[in-house]
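Hi U.,

Before I forget, here's the chain from the pilot set. I'm dumping it here mostly so it's searchable later in email.
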Amino acid sequence: MSFLNIFDLAQHYGISKLETSSLIKAKRRILAEIELDDDEVEIRNQTFSKSDVLNLFYEIDKNENILSFHKTIFQNQNLNTFLYGDSSTIPTKAFHDPLGRTSTDFTSYISPFFAKQFGNLYKNAFEEGNIEVLKFNPPISAHFLEDIYSPILKKLEDLKNDLTLSNVESKINNSVIEKLNALPQYFMKSRSDIALRVRSLSVDAWNKKEDLDLAFKILDLAFKLDVNSSTKQKLDEDEKGLKDLEQKQKENEKLEGFIELMNKAEEIKKYSANPSQIYNSLAPKILKIDLSKAKEFLQIMLIEDAKQKAHSRTDYQNLQIILNIEKMDNDFVKNSIVEHLEKMAESCRNVHSQYSIAEKFDDLAYEFKNGYKRVRSKPKPKAEPISSYENSSIASSDAWSRSFLGLGNLYRFYFICI
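Structure:
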């Protein structure tokens, strides 16, 4: 069904005034003119038959409001030309009947004509990223809107289903986000569903990859989408959860170097160990160690171990051990860490003959102890290698002292307490 405005028809045939009272006279004149033109008339580059014109007059005869509707459209040339198929300029003004009626009847009348022209335009606008068109929310009947919007809804559903952890950042980029947010309220649910899918990928980034930075980055994409309140609440909850994880991760970093040091101090004694790899893993973490947290961690471990072995000692001995462990201060932990690093340097020299790595461990111990880097004036003399680290003076003679996380020489404090 093509749109034909009776005022365009009247203007074409030189009828300057068109009112309800003069409609019958105008109809006779127009039909007579069309018969002279082989029952066809060209209006705005479209050809209409005599039958088309008769149908138009028939509709107006049935509903006198249609004449005023056509006048309203004719006075809005953007709208008028658009209904004829010119999509170069879309009408952006609300379609109100100037006669004071509600727009319901006018909307019902204009909807099929508008939907025909707007459907293809809207589909192309989404592909091309025409934000002005995407934002436009025409006041036409709901079932016509469904026809216009259904192809876009299908595209959004496909987009949501195609999202993966590896492609979400490329598929939900800034231009796509701008297009999605430009869509009218009608698309709120689809937009929120996409945000929830992005949210689930943010969860995967942490659960499957333990990549907190990536999880935050993906969740931020979901926050950029205009979503409903329930979805926003879920995003807020996830953000809080990630921030809690981030805080715990930062706290763990303060202890991570200490725990790794204890493990690596035992590992580096073995001929099969890789001192360079151990140093490269350990060095960035050592200076982040929080002595208070390391002390608390060590006290908990020592007290727990002391309780497990309490049956082999008197009550007095057990009490003294617990009291002395509780007296442990940060300086003891600091000195013990320095001692471990120095022992690891000795392992590099004596077990592995890797003197450059040994110097790096010595320098790391110096920096941790003093708070600034060592400036070396001359290389340290090489030590004579020995046959076995286990037989050297720096090895612990008691197997218990290496039983938990390789805590090694830090457990010497435990025996001193007895």
